[in-house]
Amino acid sequence: LAGRIFTPVAVLIGGTRRIISGDLEFRLESKAPDEIGELVGSFNTMTEALRDARRNLIERQRYLAAVLDNVATGVMATDSEGRIITLNPSGERILDLRRDDVIGRRPRDAAGEGTAPFFELFSGRGVREHEIELRSGERSRTVKAVVTSLEEGDERLGTVVVFDDLTELIRSKK
């Protein structure tokens, strides 16, 4: 009797450890028609649901990354601790920055020559719209930015800045 109970429980513990390590591609086998068999079946159903949820999440993440990589508008975002987590290729071009140079840094620490006014946008809350001048040597750019604080209840999740270079548009109107 002890083996009929403890062996399947030990197998479930092993399965739980595999899930914790991220292995969702396995199934437990049990031919037991009793509660232990039902528990193993529920465990397998849970593992399949987790696997499907992870696949969906990865698919959504890849889709969003593809959109960010191909949109003409610059996008930069910070996490709840105020560290930069996203800068898309258009943002790199507009700000004349390399993504690898700013990811993981706080905006005030990432500001380089001529970009300080942009990085100051990350302070504050709510939704704000700004038009700023970025000057670097002889180069001057006019950037329009919409800043959105991401909040859920009282918790601050981060900030997203969506921005466009208006320099050529302004020149063409003069």
Structure description:
This protein is α+β, with helices and mostly antiparallel strands and 174 residues long. Helix content is 47%, strand content 25%. A 5-stranded antiparallel beta sheet has the order 2-1-5-4-3. α1 (2-20) packs parallel to α2. The protein is elongated. It starts with a helix and ends with a helix. 15% of the residues are buried. The model has no long low-confidence stretch (mean pLDDT 89).
Oligomer: single chain
Strand order of the largest sheet: 2-1-5-4-3
Task: Provide the β-strand percentage band.
Answer: 25-35%
Radius of gyration: 25 Å
Helix run count: 7
Largest sheet properties: 5 strands, antiparallel
Structural class: alpha+beta
Let me know the number of strands.
5
Low-confidence regions: none
Topology as H/E string? HHEEHHHHEEEH
Fraction of residues in H or I helices: 40-55%
Report, as a whole number of angstroms, the end-to-end distance. Answer: 89 Å
The coarse overall form would be elongated
